[in-house]
Amino acid sequence: KLFFTDYGNAAKVERCDMDGMNRTWIVDSKIEQPTALALDLINKYVYWVDIYLDSVEVVDYQGRKRHTIIKGRQIRHLCGLAVFENYLYTANSDDLSILRINRYNGTDTQALARLDNAKEIRVYQKRTQTAVRNHACEVDPYGMPGGCSHMCLLSSSYKARTCRCRTGFILGSDGRSCK
């Protein structure tokens, strides 16, 4: 799945398949400017920062079990969000600090470091990299991912795929080659 935020006409947090199909709103009320998003892949939770409401909130993948982690002026200028173990990590664009926030109750908020111009944060950890033995976008014997001439996007599961073309090309009738 692909998770993303939008604060155009109606602010929301959404999810869809990697090919853009099955688009679903998971949060569409009491939300104004969701700007950063992070996933707990193991427990299937979505965390986001709303910079207008000065809050960090969480829901499960279906949009249930919503609650506020932390709210207030101390998180006014957050950008970027990452989850690792018991904490959320984020960058504060106002004072250029990296913050650590207890993700279960919002306590134990601590500035860890200061970095010039930090706008995003990521945590890379082997346990969060799920291993998939076979998937629909694996390279075929001709060097084409999933048999697609340009791009292969996973669909509703890792066993299904959709081929797409780069800008200026159209997908052929075979559903794989771009012209």
From TrEMBL:
<dbReference type="Pfam" id="PF00058">
    <property type="entry name" value="Ldl_recept_b"/>
</dbReference>
<dbReference type="GO" id="GO:0017147">
    <property type="term" value="F:Wnt-protein binding"/>
</dbReference>
<dbReference type="InterPro" id="IPR050778">
    <property type="entry name" value="Cueball_EGF_LRP_Nidogen"/>
</dbReference>
<feature type="repeat" description="LDL-receptor class B">
    <location>
        <begin position="44"/>
        <end position="87"/>
    </location>
</feature>
<dbReference type="InterPro" id="IPR011042">
    <property type="entry name" value="6-blade_b-propeller_TolB-like"/>
</dbReference>
<dbReference type="Pfam" id="PF14670">
    <property type="entry name" value="FXa_inhibition"/>
</dbReference>
<feature type="repeat" description="LDL-receptor class B">
    <location>
        <begin position="1"/>
        <end position="43"/>
    </location>
</feature>
<dbReference type="GO" id="GO:0042813">
    <property type="term" value="F:Wnt receptor activity"/>
</dbReference>
<dbReference type="GO" id="GO:0005886">
    <property type="term" value="C:plasma membrane"/>
</dbReference>
<protein>
    <submittedName>
        <fullName>LRP1B protein</fullName>
    </submittedName>
</protein>
<dbReference type="GO" id="GO:0060070">
    <property type="term" value="P:canonical Wnt signaling pathway"/>
</dbReference>
<dbReference type="InterPro" id="IPR000033">
    <property type="entry name" value="LDLR_classB_rpt"/>
</dbReference>
